Amino acid sequence: MTKSPVQPVNVVVTGAAGNIAYSLLWRVASGDVFGKDQPVNLTLLEIPAAGRAAEGTAMELADSALPLVNTITVADNAAKAFEGANAAFLVGAKPRGKGESRADMLAANGKIFIEQGKALNDAAAQDVRVLVVGNPANTNAYIASKSAPDIPGDRFNAMMRLDHNRALSMLAQHLDVPSTALERVVVWGNHADTQFPDISYATVNGEPLANEVDRDWYVDEFIPRVAKRGGEIIEVRGKSSAASAASAAVDHMRDWVQGTDGRWVTVAQASTSEYGVDAGLVFGVPAVGTGGTWEPVAGLEVSDFQRERIQANVDALKHEAEVADALF
Ligand code: NAD
Ligand code: LMR
Questions:
Q1: Pocket residue to mutate for ligand 2, from 23, 187, 226, 234, most atoms within 8 A of Cβ
Q2: Which of 164, 174, 191, 319 is labelled catalytic?
Q3: What pLDDT, on a 0 to 100 scale, did the predictor assign at position 5?
């Protein structure tokens, strides 16, 4: 029997020896992102110090004998790793510890995304899609995109799908419904404690959701609990989220490539000034996947309550962008 005649997609995962990659690589390799008939060439990018550990991950991937895996390559050179890349998961970055904010990671992580943005610009395939996971994810996506002037800005997304999934899960538990009963939930803004999980447009089984939940629970418990869930995980688990982050990365890239069939999801990409967000800030908004591109949901009515929370994220991201601009 010969290998599949379908041309493989070239997928790069950075931080390949880390916690998130240890789950993400197997999901990608199993067809959960690009489809069950789509072979993949996997490139595992790491820093030299973690190269041996990445080799070990590659050995385990090979030992899984996954039928969609065409090639596995371990790299410590971004220029080589991104050659011909159709998709890149930029995971490799330092996670925060207890008591730190994600923005605190900018000093340690920001420069990684200058180097990788440049390498993507020079080497990636024309259709490349880049999902930035490493924190602070929104501003790292801003940095990577700024470093890659030849790649359209909307090809750089930051991951806010984990926040979106957390919001869905908490609502589903509160209402005792499956998460599939919920539509039109969105998490606006930054993957940070200012983020705004919003149920203003949401429905449960097709009915307005706001009528089904107590306002005090929504404002005083739900919003802060979703926003601070990453910190809660670090507190309880002793390490930042890994399998749930990998699962969210799979959801995001799959929906980007394959579409959402009209469903809203949360996508952070460069703003085009909708909803009073400064152009260029990588901002979480509701979007529909059309199969290859995102169509942000435009023209929604926004109340003062919503506007105030959206603005808090604009302010935070403008500040982060100023810090990021100084890294260049
Ligand atoms: P980890 O420490 O387990 O792994 C990170 C890996 O990245 C390490 O192996 C490290 O050697 C590697 N790395 C560092 N610099 C690199 C570079 N220049 N090129 C390639 N690899 C590099 O961390 P983790 O738990 O996998 O988390 C990774 C990042 O994802 C962290 O910044 C974390 O805060 C973030 N994160 C984001 C979300 C989100 O929702 N956006 C969710 C969870 C975690
Ligand atoms: C998360 O939301 O779980 C990640 O961003 C990790 C963190 O630092 O909270």
A1: 234
A2: 191
A3: 82
Per cent of the chain over pLDDT 70 is 99
Give the residue range(s) of CATH 3.90.110.10 domains in the chain: 160-326
Q: How far is the CA of 156 from the centre of ligand 1 (A)?
A: 17
Query: Is 191 labeled as catalytic in the residue annotation?
Result: yes
Q: Whose CA is nearest to atom 6 of ligand 1?
A: 15
CA 105 – ligand 1 centroid, Å? 11
Q: What pairing do the DSSP bridges indicate for beta strands 87-90 and 9-14?
A: parallel
Tell me, using a 6 A CB cutoff, whether residue 260 lines ligand 2.
no
Q: What is the DSSP letter of 199?
A: -
Copy the structure tokens of residue 114: 């200058």
Sign of CA dihedral 54, 241, 97, 320: positive
Q: Whose CA is nearest to atom 5 of ligand 2?
A: 230
CATH dotted code for 160-326? 3.90.110.10
Using alpha carbons, list the distances in angstroms from residue 304 to 4, 299, 301, 327.
55, 15, 10, 35
Residue 276, both tokens: 């009073």
- pLDDT of 99 reads 86
Q: With a cut of 70, which residues of the chain have pLDDT below it?
A: 1-3
Where are the CATH 3.40.50.720 domain residues in the chain? 9-158
pLDDT digits (tens, 9 = 90+) for 251-302: 999 999 999 999 999 999 999 999 999 999 999 999 999 999 999 999 999 9
pLDDT in tens, 141-160: 999 999 999 999 999 999 99
The CB of 231 under 6 Å from ligand 2? The reply is: yes
Q: Which CATH superfamily is domain 9-158 in?
A: NAD(P)-binding Rossmann-like Domain (3.40.50.720)
The predicted structure's pLDDT at residue 2: 61
Please state the pTM of the whole predicted model: 0.98
| Residue 230 Cβ contacting ligand 2 at under 6 Å | yes
- 20 annotated as ligand-binding: yes
Is residue 138 annotated as involved in ligand binding?
Answer: no
Cα–Cα dist 195/184, whole Å: 16
- Could you give the CA distance from residue 105 to residue 95 in angstroms, rounded to a whole number? 7
* Per-residue model confidence (pLDDT) at position 1: 55
